[in-house]
Amino acid sequence: MKKTTKELEGILLNAHSANVEQIFTENNYSFVNKTFSDYFKDLLSQNKISQQKVFIDADISEKYGYKLISGEKHTNQRDTLLRLCYAGKLNVEETNRSLILYGMSPLYARNKRDALLIIAFNDRVGDILDLNEYLIKNGEKPLKNSGNTE
Predict the structure, then answer these.
(1) Global confidence as pTM
(2) Per-residue pLDDT reduced to its tens digit, 113-150
(3) Distance between CA atoms of residues 22 and 63, nearest Å
(4) What CA–CA distance (Å, rounded) separates 111 from 117?
(5) How far is Cα 113 from Cα 123, in angstroms, rounded to an integer?
(6) How far apart (Å, rounded) are the C-alpha atoms in residues 108 and 88?
(7) H or E element in which residue 36 lies
(8) How far apart are CA 111 and CA 82, in angstroms?
(9) In angstroms, rounded to a whole number, what is the distance separating the alpha carbons of residues 82 and 75?
(10) Cα distance between residue 103 and residue 16, in whole Å
(11) Where are the domains of the chain?
């Protein structure tokens, strides 16, 4: 049975190094075993959205987008991944897991911009342009463009 992050943290906080093998065996389904690439592609497949459509909707060049998703290229721009996740119709939980798998911080409810993004991902305020207008209207910076035109 898959445990929540809080449940898993509780187990690990009370664990001893001598029991590590047993802990991983008993909680195997609770650990993330996918790469960002596999996870993101699976979600797009579930949402019946092509990668090409995501790149167009995210306003990211196709060549660069494929390289990001495959892992051939890496970006330090969290906004680029947020654009991909929004265009891929990911929900907040899926977006946060994608960000974490990519090595970035998840959306944080105490940060105003992230709070607005959480609402936007949940409420689907429109396309990327609408999302950026929503952020600006609420006093925050829009999602940056990747700037990569490969």
Answers:
(1) 0.82
(2) 999 999 999 999 999 999 999 999 999 999 998 765 55
(3) 44
(4) 10
(5) 15
(6) 20
(7) helix 36-46
(8) 15
(9) 12
(10) 27
(11) 1-31, 36-137
